[in-house]
Amino acid sequence: MEPNTGIAGEGRHAIADALAQVLADSYSLYQKTHLYHWNVQGPRFSALHQLFSDQYLELWNALDEMAERIRALGVFAPSHGQLAARTKIPTPNDISVSEDAMLKALLEGQEIVVRSARSALKLSAELGDDATADLMTQRCAAGEKAAWMLRAHLS
């Protein structure tokens, strides 16, 4: 049964597709951040272990909100394989990298997510989907704050 909430079917599907990109990038970044949380080592271990924990937990909670928004638009949330195929987040092959390399990779990932969220925000605003626009505004703010925190550790 198609939703009848004031957004045409084509628009709902376009918004859901943009959201699926943000979800894919966020899910991949969640996994990378958690992996680095487990494997960080060096003189800043304690601080980075906690920072990475804070960031992967924030991402984890956001994943559910985005997938549920896709469902509210009348579209199925993407499968794990679909998420993995469309993410723009580079997948690490070597987990024994330096603290700075981890920070730089996560910073790059956060900025990718923000750009994806900003694109979905623009589309949803153009199509009159205030609920998705609000969610993407929150994702932009969270990603920008996370990027700032990562940058602060690199200065």
Automatic annotation (TrEMBL):
It holds the Pfam family Ferritin. Residues 17-154 form the Ferritin/DPS domain. CDD domains: DPS (cd01043). Gene3D superfamilies: 1.20.1260.10. It comes from the Bacteria. Belongs to the Dps family. PANTHER family: DNA PROTECTION DURING STARVATION PROTEIN, GENERAL STRESS PROTEIN 20U. This is DNA starvation/stationary phase protection protein. It comes from Candidatus Phycosocius spiralis. The gene is dps.
